[in-house]
Structure formats: C-alpha cells, structure tokens
Amino acid sequence: MLLWKVCCCASRRWTFWLRQSRTGPGYGDDQLLALAANQGRIVLTHDRQTMIGFANSRVSAGLRMPGMIVVKDQWAPGPLIEDILIILFAGLPGELEDRVLFVPM
Asked: Residue 95, Cβ neighbours under 10 Å: how many?
C-alpha cells in the first residue's frame, strides 16, 4: 500500500496535489488521480513507473484528468522549481487537461 503525504499548492490559476512518499497505507495511484480530477487539481509526481499509466488509462476511458506534471527525482531543485513556476504562471487554465507533462522541459 502507498502512503500519500499530500500538499495542496495554489496559484491564481492552478491548484495541484503533490505526491511525496511511497510507504504505508493510503491512496493508490488511481484513487489519487480520481480525487485530483474531482477537485480539478493537477498532480505533481516523480513516479514514472505507475502514475503515467493510470493517467493515460483515465484519459483513454474518457474520465477527467486535469493534468499531471512528472518530475525527475534526481534533479537540481532550482531549475525544477523554475520550470514548474513557468508552467503555473505562464500557462492557461485547462492547458494541461488530459496531458502528462515532463519536467525539466
């Protein structure tokens, strides 16, 4: 089972969930994506093994997926944060709908 330490981050245009850990009981990938979709939140994750597949499955099934940003887990935080801020403040609302975006860009 997975433990999700979930943090909500909001800007003027975006809100998203941040997935932080992988141990203990909690939300599974599909449950987290459903929760994010119900609340209109973008998921920010470093899980390239399972989250992408669940996101693509939601889109293929015609289910809502407000968007996902996938980051490298071994990356310098400065450029990573910079790229995420560019996406959040320069992007348009709904721009990530049904999309998985990989950062760094």
From this structure: 14
The DSSP annotation for 62-87 comes to: T-----EEEE-SSS-HHHHHHHHHHH
Q: Which two tokens stand for residue 58?
A: 């939601």
Compute the distance between CA of residue 68 and CA of residue 77 in angstroms, rounded to an integer.
18
Whether the bond into 79 is cis, omega within 30 of 0: no
Dihedral of alpha carbons 105, 3, 13, 96, sign: positive
20 and 44 Cβ atoms separated by less than 8 Å: no
How many other CB atoms sit within 10 Å of the CB of residue 66? 23
56 burial level (CB within 10 Å; 0-12, 13-18, 19+): middle
pLDDT in tens, 19-35: 555 544 566 888 888 88
pTM of the predicted protein model: 0.74
58-71 pLDDT, tens digit per residue, is 999 999 998 888 88
Domain boundaries, the chain: 7-103
